[in-house]
Design brief:
CATH architecture of the largest domain in chain A: 3-Layer(aba) Sandwich
Number of domains of chain A: 2
Helix content of chain A: 25-40%
Number of strands of chain A: 10
Order of helices and strands of chain A: EEEHEEHEHHHHEHEHEEHH
Number of helices of chain A: 10
Strand order of the largest sheet of chain A: 6-7-8-3-9-10
Distance between the termini of chain B: 31 Å
Largest sheet of chain A: 6 strands, mixed
Oligomer: heterodimer
Helix content of chain B: 55-70%
CATH topology of the largest domain in chain A: Rossmann fold
Largest interface: A-B, 41 and 30 residues
Number of helices of chain B: 14
Strand order of the largest sheet of chain B: 1-2
Amino acid sequence: MSKSLIELKNVTMKFGGVTALSDVTFDVKEKEILGLIGPNGAGKTTVFNVITGVYQITSGEIIFDGKSLAGVKRYKITKRGVARTFQNIRLWGDMTALENVMTAADTHKKSGLVSGLFGFPISRREEKRDKARAQELLDFIGIGEYSDRLAKNLPYGVQRRLEIARAMGAEPKLLLLDEPAAGFNPAEKVELAATIRKIRDAGYTVLLIEHDMSLVMKVSDRVVVLDFGQKIADDSPRNVQDDKRVIEAYLGVPEDAS
Amino acid sequence: MINLRDKGAEIWENQGRVGRIVIAVCAIAIVAALPFMGGTFLNTPVADYESVLVYPIAMFVLMAIGLNIVIGKSGLLDLGYVAFFAIGAYTMGLLGTKTGLNTWEILPIGIAMAMFSGIILGVPALKLRGDYLAIITLGFGEIVRIVALNLGALGRSEGIQGIPTPPGIFGIEYAFDSHRIYYWTLLILILLAIWMVRRLSARRAGRAWESIRQDEDAAELLGVPTFKYKVWAFVLGASVGGAAGVIYASKTLFIAPDNFTLQISILILACVVFGGMGNIWGVILGAVILGYLPDRIRFLSEARLLVFGLVLVIMMNLRPDGILPRKKREKAIVKKDAS
């Protein structure tokens, strides 16, 4: 068994009287694709938000790459190696696809504003390197020909893919994908599944939230199921599909059984 | 309405390196020659053409470029920009009358003072967003003016008088009424500011500001140190305002708190919005028009602000993004391959 990249230990997240996550414990192993599923409102996106530092957890601990993420600033969490996409697309519309990726890549630059202003060699070198890398990433995701187009003018499917490319621009170890297949047709979903596997093969670890069961079951190495903020299953895709509690969570309890 | 912005950008993009240098040199030469192209019909009722070129026009252009970094590039609504102008001017006034330093020595000090106050204001204020930030900056602008009004060392409502003119450099003498010389001095500062903004826009800082303006949360979650770049935007905006203030003080020779009212902040903001937020050429055009217009129509006396307001309302209805809006079009992909 390979080692854990990120561990959530007894994570609880309360908003006033509402408990969004209750004592959730699971981990993501290195180079693994972990599917995170559950009915609407189960707390999937909340998991993303606590990992990326949008919310500070009420109790518990999140260990990333051997170090706690408690109190770490959001952009520094990204710098350490966690990047995400958004369920509702949140690209920078007035920037080109390439600039979107480069902006995320800037997080690892050594040169800042002053060396950029005076055109120090390091700034020029990094700029050139990142531009090439950003283009490579767009090609990798399969949207290379759109690099000079403004993000807001791109077709929906390309925007979704650009979200992934942008997150990868930040050179994450852990890539959080929040419903990347939302609104995709079956053919696009098949293509996306191949892309996600390709991303893992390139050395990334993927935590995937997705509603499309066939996609999740096809690409995931392991699946964690949340229901009402609690973890109810953590197993291989095969076993999760047969799990009684998971079926209950999705379909409800049959009347004669209760 | 034809899209001036795109026409201009297209001509520029289609030029090689030599062509661009030729265009830039010609443009600078024409702008530098403006003081000689005046006609009496351009005179305003209160001042002649040449002095109007210096203040308000060139001064407004410089400040609008500075404010554009804060509002147009980073999307931070700053309603107290006049404070940095005042800080630059008072630094010049105080050091110019109390010490032996001359304008050129005070200029970097004034810029540093403005930048420092940008940090003082920015660090607490930039934790807030939108309307709350606007209110705080509005307050800051007023605080600076009221401090100047009440502090004995700053001359209270009398202000500071007898500020020295800049000493001559390279055999050029700065006399009180040699408007051309001041105009060219400001032109150099404007060119420096344009260079700075264009340079930064194409690099990391520009992308960071752009991402903050469009979606600050997404920016932070994708690794942009948003707070740091917001403070930078404030500080650089302040530095331009401070530089404008130093030159202003050594041009007018007399400053008082009345020169630094909220009205100036609003007017500079109007220049930025009217011209086209985020597009430096739009902002410059906006500042030229809004600097000139109110003085030109002074013959209308009391009705002048009414007409001014009416022009603003009509224009903003016709072109809500300003006269020359920010980049909207995309570079043709073909062109990139060709170059």
